[in-house]
Every structure is written in structure tokens, then in C-alpha cells.
């Protein structure tokens, strides 16, 4: 792992200890509904992924939940019958998945690692990848798309959430006060703009070209897209959607 990944791994472990929103596991009620075929997951903050972005049945299909620890997407998909592997940089986030799997009697695998390096998996291993907003924590996003394409089967699907880089234009402290003050450039790097603080994640605002063209350059065709925000919880939500999700299909050339 890079120094940035190591730093963010420890920061996410701390987020688990602090019980922040994105580390809170799904409830037994949600898992029971998934067993009965009534399930949904999110890859952004507020909206759920359209059900028709998935196969009619996911029973038996091989799914990689990429940078998706926390006991959320993985256990739901496993309860719905999928063969799920959860891959994440945080040991404690992965432990959340292990605990839900143990509690609910689910068959689910976990692997710790950096999302830019999926060498733990052979070529064309998975039918589907679910990748929630997470590439904001790495410096270069294009290797993620290349590795995702490598480990997906032909015509496999990548469902990913990511930030609109416009979010990183503004001073975060001023936004908390209800003011949008342009303070940064895009692409954004916390390494250039801020002091590195232990326990706080380092974030990176990637260009839309790297997010979208990066997928097509890796061999994907984008077949669906929607926008999302923080559910009205931030000042910028009243002006623009700051998250996107894409459904991309791998096509061999």
C-alpha cells in the first residue's frame, strides 16, 4: 500500500471506532428482507441503485464489493443469494462484514487491500462489481477502472459511485457556515492543500474525464448514470448534485 492508503486505512479504522454513518452495518430486518428478495443497496449517500441495473436474479453470481467494507452492501447481496467477496483497505470495516455474516449465517468472504491493486484475484473472476463512493480516497483513479475491467468477465457490470469534483472547489469550513467560497482547484489533492492529520482521511477530487473517460478507456461502455447528494445536509446540496453513479458494462474489443 502507498503511504496515502496506509494513512486512510488507519483513518477508516478510527471511523469504525467512532461509529460514523458509513461504518454502520445493516440491521437483521434488512438482511431478512434481502433473503425474501426485497433488497436494495446504495453506492452514493442518499439514492438507491435502480433495481434494473442488476440481473433479475443475483443468486449464484460472483460479486466483488470493491472498497465496500462496513457490513452494508456485501451482506445484503449475500443474503439475496450472491457469491460475495468484500474488498477494503480497513481491517475494522471488513470486520463489520464478518460480524454481520456470523450473526446472520451468511457465506461471505473478505480481503484487505488497495483498490488500485486487485492482484489477489485472477482475470475474469467476477460477474459484477459494486463500488460505492470510495475512489475519493486515492490519488489516481484510472488504475481502479483498469483493475475492475481485468477481474470482470466479458459483459460483466461495474456499478460505481463517485464525487463530482465541484465539491472540492469550496472551503469546507465556510460551507459549514452556509457560505460557498471557492478556495481550491480541480483536480483537488488534500496533500497539496492541507496539513496531514492522523485520524482524518485524505481526499482527492478527480476530474470527470478521469472518472468517466477513465472507465471507457479501460474497456467499459457506460449504460446508465444518475446524480445524488448528501440528502440536503450540506449547503452545496441546494445548488448542485455532488455525487454520480454509473452502470458500466465491460466489452472486449
Textual characterization of the structure:
The chain has helices spanning 3-18, 28-35, 73-79, 91-104, 142-151, 172-176, 190-193, 208-217; strands spanning 62-66, 83-88, 108-112, 126-131, 152-163, 188-189, 204-205, 220-228, 243-250. It contains eight helices and nine strands. The strands form two sheets. The chain has a seven-stranded mixed β-sheet, sandwiched between helices. β4, α5 and β5 (152-163) form a beta-alpha-beta unit. By secondary structure, it is α/β, with parallel strands linked by helices. The mean pLDDT is 95. It has a single domain (3-250), classed as Vaccinia Virus protein VP39 (Rossmann fold, 3-Layer(aba) Sandwich), CATH 3.40.50.150. InterPro entries: Methyltransf_11 (IPR013216), SAM-dependent_MTases_sf (IPR029063). It holds the Pfam family Methyltransf_11.
Keywords:
single chain; 253 residues; alpha/beta; Rossmann fold; seven-stranded mixed beta sheet; two-stranded antiparallel ribbon; 8 helices; 29% helix; Methyltransf_11; SAM-dependent_MTases_sf; S-adenosylmethionine-dependent methyltransferase activity; Methyltransferase domain-containing protein; methyltransferase
- The helical percent reads 25-40%
Counted by DSSP, the helix tally is 8
Radius of gyration: 17 Å
User: pLDDT below 50 for ≥5 consecutive residues: which ranges?
Assistant: none
Strand content: 15-25%
**Can you identify the CATH class?**
Alpha Beta
CATH topology (fold) name: Rossmann fold
Overall average pLDDT: 95
Structural class: alpha/beta
Task: State the assembly state of the protein chains.
Answer: single chain
**Span between N and C termini?**
31 Å
Number of domains: 1
Q: Identify the strand order in the major beta sheet.
A: 3-2-1-4-5-9-8
Count of DSSP strands:
9
